[in-house]
Amino acid sequence: MSLFDKFQPIIDIRAELQQLGIMPFGAVTEKLLSATEGIVNGHQVILAGTNNYLGLTFDPACIAAAKTAIDEQGTGTTGSRMANGTFAEHLQLEQELAQFFDRRHAIVFSTGYAATMGMASTLAGPGDVIVLDADSHASLYDGVRLSGADIIRFRHNDVADLEKRLRRLGDRTANTLIIVEGIYSMLGDQAPLGEIATVKRRHGGMLLVDEAHSLGMLGDHGRGVAEAQGVEDAVDFIVGTFSKSLGAIGGYCVSNHPQLEAVRFATRSYIFTASPSPSVIASTRAALRLLQQRPELRERLWVNAQRLYDGLQALGFRMSPQVSPVVAVTIGERDQAIGWWQRLLELGVYVNLVMPPASPTDNSLLRCSISAAHSRAQIDRILDAFAALESA
Amino acid sequence: MPDYNEIISRMYRLLQPFVKPEVELSGDSELVTELGLTSLQVMTLIEHIEDEFDISVPLNILPDIRTIGDLAQQLEKLVP
């Protein structure tokens, strides 16, 4: 019996993949040619698995802002927000996020993981209850585990199941936190937030929504699923990330509850880590402005998502129920998914390979994420590559 | 309020879809190491148990559960 015994399944799968000469996990991006093309594991590819939804990673305004910040403020803050790591720009970004979301308060975190894990672990504590969607992201599961609250899981997107669980809690809903996501990261399906808001109003509790994959994509202002479904007033906390549509790294929580300013100083993932670098804050602020100034990015993203989804569906692949910038193809056999992932790379397309237990079922996924920056021709090349798999 | 024996016999029924027919279940049967349930199957089993007994099972109890008997003991506390 050794400390390492529990890692044996990981060691086995790594050895198996190494023998096949396939490296899907930790694929190396050797060179980026643009926001949508690069060289990965030695192959020139269209990047169709990067979460770069609005394609802003190479936007000149974002790059210029980051460069200026480095010139003026250096490469890092070298401290936490509680100590020396709060620069004026961190506060400006918090104000801009609050304005954008039309909320009174905002906290900026160093990563999206720190934001979601931090809020999930801090808002509820021992004696409280957390009711979360079964398909919630690992960062939320990690957070709720740390919270010390009673954790109850409801069936994915099943509002009747959520209501049943809230009803069983009785008076305990007064100190219950409901956690869902806007767009779910694995299959790209949306939460029925309108119905969830109704159930929450009926039974009580507070609602936290992770909009990591929906910021900049939905709603008149691009605020996400809560805005799109007209239920922002029922959502107590929105958390998310800068590492997807905003093309940087970092996370946030926004709320109208004045107590968020106290929560800030109780959240360990905020307190005990260095604050985001000045260049990251600068490019994020520029990207947030662009997101608001250029709604056409959002429109192009959905046109692209629909084109890829329709094309894959026409090829006969097993698709998620909803069109979304996360376009996931479900593959029953794990080995086929691994083989196809490698073949796509050789055909010039990089996507994400997701295998159990990371996938929400026993199936594997070839998960594409589409970008506003993809051209029509690039999407057609992605489809040609998938078509070649079928005929192989 | 069902007792331990009733709970465990109802659990055997719920476990049937997850185990081979020739496997003999007992309170000492280990869910993961012996019966070979994956983490996803454990969660699905919990969902079926929740429906069967009309309860919500907090995930917090899972780290302490290795056997069918461990789970039955926890359910005894949760089932009204």
Task: Summarize it.
Chain A is of the alpha/beta class. Chain A has helices spanning 8-20, 60-73, 88-101, 112-122, 138-147, 159-169, 193-203, 225-228, 260-264, 268-271, 278-293, 295-314, 334-346, 376-391; strands spanning 29-32, 37-40, 43-47, 105-109, 129-133, 150-154, 176-181, 206-210, 237-241, 251-255, 318-319, 326-331, 349-350, 352-354, 364-369. Chain A is 41% helix and 17% strand.
Detailed description of the structure:
The complex is a heterodimer of chains A (392) and B (80). Chain A folds into 2 domains: 151 residues, Aspartate Aminotransferase, domain 1 (Alpha-Beta Complex); 200 residues, Type I PLP-dependent aspartate aminotransferase-like (Major domain) (Aspartate Aminotransferase, domain 2). Chain A is of the alpha/beta class and 392 residues long. Chain A is built from 14 helices and 15 strands. Chain A starts with 7 loop residues before the first helix and ends with a helix. In chain A, 41% of the residues lie in helices and 17% in strands. In chain A, strand 2 and strand 3 form a beta hairpin. Chain B is mostly helical. Chain B has one domain: ACP-like (Non-ribosomal Peptide Synthetase Peptidyl Carrier Protein, Chain A), CATH 1.10.1200.10. Chain B is globular and about 30 Å long. Chain B starts with a helix and ends with a helix.
